[in-house]
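How a chain folds remains the central question behind the approach discussed here. This step matters because it turns folding into a mapping between discrete strings. The sequence in question and its structure tokens are set out directly beneath this paragraph.
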Amino acid sequence: MMMYLHAGRDTVIRTKKIVAVFDLDYASQNRDTLEFLKQAEKEKRLVNVTDELPKAFILTDDGKVYLTQLSSQTIMGRIY
């Protein structure tokens, strides 16, 4: 059975493609994470799926990074 996560706006991600979920407040304190997000934006792999302040980001197996208003705890609860 295929399961999907509604990440925000009109964006749905197949849960099998999710590699990692990061809390943005915690992860953004790390310089390497900030550099990773800047590089993803530069390479047009960063997808903002919220009109609100993002709380987490989702990394998928195709290298895309989705900024979402959902908390990392909410995302993990919906996946499992």
